Each structure stands twice: as C-alpha cells, then as structure tokens.
Amino acid sequence: MRYSALALIKQAFQGNRGWTPAWREPQPKAHYDVIIVGGGGHGLATAYYLAKEFGVKNIAVLEKGYLGSGNVGRNTTIVRSNYLLPGNEPFYEFSLKLWEGLEQDLNYNVMLSQRGIINLFHNDADRDAHIRRGNAMWMEGVPAELLDRETLKKMMPFLNFDHARFPIMGGLLQKRAGTARHDAVAWGFARGADRHGVDLIQHCEVTGIRRENGVVMGVETSRGFIGCGKLGLAAAGNTSVVGQMAGLKLPIESHVLQAFVTEGLKPCIDHVITYGAGHFYISQSDKGGLVFGAEIDGYSSYAQRGNLATVEHVMEEGVTMIPGLSRVRVLRSWAGVMDMSMDGSPIISRTDIDNLYLNCGWCYGGFKATPASGFCFAHLIAKGETHPAARFLRLDRFERGYPIDEHGAGPQPNLH
Ligand SMILES: Cc1cc2nc3c(=O)[nH]c(=O)nc-3n(C[C@H](O)[C@H](O)[C@H](O)COP(=O)(O)OP(=O)(O)OC[C@H]3O[C@@H](n4cnc5c(N)ncnc54)[C@H](O)[C@@H]3O)c2cc1C
C-alpha cells in the first residue's frame, strides 16, 4: 500500500479501517540466498538495498527480538557528516546524501529535520581543531561554517557563555545536519524491504553458524536451522557474540551508552548542540522533550541499562552548558549496547571465512550511517567488491596498520 495525502484522505473517510500491516510475518524458509543477522537499522537497510538496488531475490533478516528493539530505536537521532579524516568524511557524506532522498525513496516519513548541528569550542586549541575539521569538510565538498561567540550569543542566549572554566568561544556549524525519527527509520526500511520480497523474521535468535570445509552453510536459530548462500552480520552491540559463533575474534568491545528525555517544553532549542568541554549533546524532539546524552558508561557490558554515576555526570555536563536545564524534569532514561571498535571507526568488510560478511564497529555514531552502511554492505555482499565510499572501512586495516583514529584517542574503545 502506497502512502500519500490521497491515501490519508481516503482512509479518514473510511474510519481508518483500510490500512494494511506495514510488513508480513512470514515463516522462515529452509534456505535463503542471503541471510542478514540483526533487524536493526543497518540489517534492515542492507536487506532493502540488496533487494532494490542489487536485484538479490531470496533474502531474510533474522532478528532475535522485535524489529528496531536494539540501538536503532534507542539513539539520540543525530544525523551529520562533519568528520575529519578521509576514511570517514566521504562515507558519512554519502550517507547524508542518501538521507536527503530517503523519505521519497522509502515512501515513508522518517521526519528528517535538517536543523543544523553546532559543535561548541572553549579554548584556542579546541578552536584550531574545529577549524581544521571544517576545512577538511570543505575539501570533501561539504559546507561548514565557523560561528563566533557574538553570533552564537544571539542564536542561543540560554548557553553558559562565561562559565569560568569553560567559556564558549565559538562553534562549528553544519547546516545540513540534524535529526531523524529513529523508529521510523527502522520501520521505513522494514516496510521497504518487505515490499521487495525480503522475509523479516522476528523472534528468531541466531545461536550458531554452521560451516563446512571453511564455508558458511547457514545458521542455527531458536526456530531451527536455516541454510544460506551468504551471511551478513549486522548485530551491533552483540557482534562479538555472533562473530564468535564463526570463530571470529574481533577488535570490538561492547559498552553501554545512555540517553535521556525531559518533559515536553515549548520550542526552545532549534539546533543540535554539542558541548566541546565534555561530550554532551542535546536537541529538542518534535514532541517538545529535550533529548540528550553524553559518554559511554566506560565498562564492558551487554546490559541495556546504565549506571547512576554516569547519570550524575551527564546532568552535570548539561547544566554546565545550559544552566536553565536544572529546572527541567527528566522524564525517562534508557541505554543501548555499543559495538566499540579499537579506532572508533566502523567496519564493513568481508572476513577470512568464505561467504561471511561483517558490518560493525559503529560505536555511538551508527544511526547517521544507516543508509550508507546498508548500501555499502549490500554492495559488498551482492558484488563481492567494496563500495568506494567504504574502501577504508575494511577489517584488515588493523593488521595493515591503517586505523582511522577520528578522535585521536588511540586503540582505546572506551575513550572514543
Ligand atoms: C543511547 C544511544 C544514543 C545514540 N545516539 C546516536 C546518535 O545521536 N547518532 C548516531 O549516529 N548514532 C547514535 N547511536 C548509535 C546508533 O544507534 C548505533 O550505532 C546503530 O543503531 C547500530 O546499528 P543498528 O541500528 O543496526 O543496531 P541495532 O538496532 O542494535 O541492531 C542490531 C540488532 O541485532 C539483533 N541481534 C543481536 N544478536 C542477535 C542474534 N544472535 N540473532 C538475531 N538477532 C540478533 C539485536 O536484537 C538488534 O536488534 C546511539 C546509540 C545509543 C544506544
């Protein structure tokens, strides 16, 4: 069923009884040409592009919970392409370009809001780093704007400009960045994949990977064995666990990241703002809640909930940047499990095992990558060749000595 203004009007006159389910609930078949493990944003996008762009017909996505129950439905919805390093910037810009046409492509409202992101800086060295990043963006053809303190003061008078320790000196603006409704992204890709014949199998946990003579033959699941030609792993925070089923030891650690939302307020913050003296980021949802988060909790875990010490730290950062926040009530907090890579950058790669492909290492920034990740992973699985935008994201970069250390934090996943 195609969504349109006409369909809305028609359904309104029919008491909204004619809407059909957005996707089918098929039983798993005995064999698929391609199986994707993980019904998060990346797995669903991969299946969608495999079917739509690369003409692969017999595809299943296996999800242990319900579609979108992982990080794709837990993130703070920020979409941007303001990266520094050549391994990352073209990839994320490719992603942003896909975002810009995604709603028409999917025939689904993912509520993309290009309200702009402003990264604040608070000292000279920080300013120089932001100028460098802005210049690197321009070199890739991506517009960036340096804002001085006076301009920012007019735009966002509620910020704490004269904090004794962290005075705000300025900010770097990417106007095309913004937010998208995270659940809608999962639902839009799921519906799109289903329309192209992909079987979306929910409540089907992969518990083993069967290999014969070093070649992947299929997966053991909570609903029995399912054979496949090719297998793509897009399990985000559970990547190490799933990888281990095929004997892969991966440069990934799983860490917890929390997010928060306040009670609804009248429109007050019209950009995404990030704090340069810490790692705090905030935006306002369409319902009026302030959505914010900060660093990962700092220890390895598979629990989808965080600890109170981090809650306190996040609140301190928030109030340091916006003192008025202290008068707003926090409504909810939640957490997701991050697949932190050793250089803070993602992996889209074949593996040493025939027919086994890997998509992981998104750290706390994989939502914005969803369309490009799906497209590039589908390209790799279908054609056996790396997509040019993802050419630096191979797994063997760690062996070859080509990490993409975007944050300059070294091989310390908990620092990225
Ligand atoms: C609090 C928080 C804030 C974030 N903020 C941002 C942000 O503002 N911007 C941004 O770009 N990124 C952000 N991220 C990161 C982003 O959400 C993730 O990098 C991205 O969603 C990961 O890819 P995914 O959507 O495929 O993951 P997921 O949605 O986690 O999908 C993986 C799926 O695999 C399934 N799975 C795992 N093991 C198995 C198995 N054995 N069998 C079957 N299925 C399995 C899981 O159930 C899950 O549904 C944030 C993340 C969190 C938690």
State the major sheet: 8 strands, mixed
Oligomer: single chain
Low-pLDDT residue intervals, each spanning 5 or more residues:
none
- The arrangement of helices and strands along the chain is HEHEEHEHEHEEHEEEEHEEEEHEEEHH
Q: How much of the polypeptide forms β-strand, as a percent range?
A: 25-35%
Mean pLDDT across the residues is 97
Using only C-alpha atoms, the radius of gyration works out to 21 Å
Tally the helices: what do you get? 10
Q: What coarse outline follows from CA principal-axis ratios?
A: globular
Structural class: alpha/beta
Measured distance between first and last alpha carbons: 43 Å
Please provide the count of β strands: 18
Ions, cofactors and other ligands present here are: flavin-adenine dinucleotide
The amount of helix comes to: 25-40%
Subcellular location: Cytoplasm
GO molecular function, one term: sarcosine oxidase activity
Enzyme class: oxidoreductase
Main location: cytoplasm
Labels describing this entry:
416 residues; alpha/beta; 8-stranded mixed beta sheet; globular; binds flavin-adenine dinucleotide; flavoprotein; oxidoreductase; EC 1.5.3.24; sarcosine oxidase activity
